[in-house]
Design goal:
Layout (H helix, E strand, L loop, with lengths): L6 E5 L3 H8 L8 E3 L15 E5 L5 H4 L5 E4 L5 H4 L9 E2 L4 H19 L2 H9 L15 E5 L3 H12 L3 E5 L10 E3 L4 H7 L2 E4 L13 H4 L12 E4 L8 H10 L4 E4 L19 E3 L9 H16 L15
Parallel strand pairs: 1-2, 1-3, 3-4, 4-5, 6-7, 6-9, 7-8, 9-10, 10-11, 11-12
Helix pairs in contact: 4-6
């Protein structure tokens, strides 16, 4: 163990979940969990690796010899803006469990809107027995913005359910069976879209992207009677005042939101009670801590055996 660098853990996750996951992880090296009181003032110099999610503000000034930083989630915007972040590789968490959970959430939300679940809830509350029109999935086009691991998997599973699927990314990507668009094709992509799914990272280019101007370009004469907005990417990419205004004036027929500009969502937000909104508390794809640690161990093993790290963030692109 003395020949292998310890691993710093600085994760604002459930403490019991982290403790349980650590029992079977990093068997051949020391773990320094900064949540433990004994490590609050520990010297962290000379340590090569840190696994972080909303870490302590002074982490990088204390751990000034890091060789790699591992994000505790698929998103990395919280890491890339940390003060003192060293010029070392930052590695995203990519794992089948996280991908599957995200796709489950996206498919669920699309089906809830397809089958008019909000409308039936309203009828049930009034004890009204009424069958509503039932468009088929094949009549509805889901447009996914963000075609990384999560977006590509969600697209494949939506196709299995029968939806037409199109995709958008800043740079053109090729995905079998799915028409894709790049930055220059954004308006054409939006004009095709009945359900808009946001799975974008948060960057300077995507901040505030989901706004009134964008919503106005979505298809208006689709089978659902109006466009739907679904976001499980990053809260900073949406303008919530514009979402509410669009829901109120009919520009949007509904929304499903898992991420928000401020989290937890302020109690005074109308999104809590809006009759057209499905809402979850940034829980679409919670990180499996056991899987996270296995991912980090695999990447450290690659690095120490002379192989390149995988899923390294492109600092210029921001993801």
């Amino acid at each position: 163990m003395q020949n292998k660098s310890p691993v710093i853990i600085d994760l604002k996750f459930d403490r019991q979940e982290v403790a349980t996951a650590l029992k079977g992880a990093f068997a051949d090296r020391e773990v320094i969990d900064l949540a433990h009181p004994a490590n609050k003032a520990r010297d962290l110099s000379g340590i090569d690796y840190a696994v972080v999610w909303k870490p302590s503000a002074d982490l990088f000034s204390r751990a000034n010899d890091l060789k790699a930083v591992f994000s505790g989630g698929a998103g990395v915007d919280h890491v890339m803006t940390l003060p003192g972040l060293p010029e070392v590789p930052v590695v995203r968490f990519v794992d089948p469990t996280l991908t599957t959970r995200m796709s489950e959430w996206v498919v669920l939300q699309c089906l809830l809107h397809l089958r008019q679940f909000k409308a039936y809830e309203a009828l049930n509350a009034k004890r009204i027995w009424r069958e509503l029109a039932q468009p088929e999935a094949k009549e509805v086009t889901v447009g996914i913005m963000g075609l990384g691991v999560l977006g590509s998997d969600a697209a494949a599973k939506l196709r299995v359910m029968g939806f037409e699927v199109v995709g958008w990314s800043r740079r053109m990507k090729q995905i079998d069976g799915i028409e894709t668009f790049d930055a220059a094709g954004l308006d054409a992509f939006l004009a095709r879209t009945d359900i808009l799914v946001g799975l974008l990272p948060l960057t300077a280019d995507t901040r505030g992207l989901f706004n009134a101007a964008l919503f106005s370009k979505l298809r208006r004469k689709g089978a659902l009677g109006g466009p739907i907005f679904v976001n499980a990417g990053r809260g900073g990419s949406q303008v919530e005042a514009d979402i509410l205004a669009a829901l109120d004036d009919g520009t949007l027929a509904g929304a499903s939101l898992d991420v928000f500009e401020q989290e937890p969502l302020p109690l005074e937000s109308r999104l809590w009670t809006h009759e057209k909104v499905f809402m979850t508390p940034h829980a679409a794809a919670a990180s499996d801590v056991r899987a996270l640690f296995a991912h980090v161990e695999q990447q450290i093993s690659r690095l120490e055996s002379g192989q390149p790290l995988q899923h390294v963030v492109d600092r210029q692109a921001g993801y």
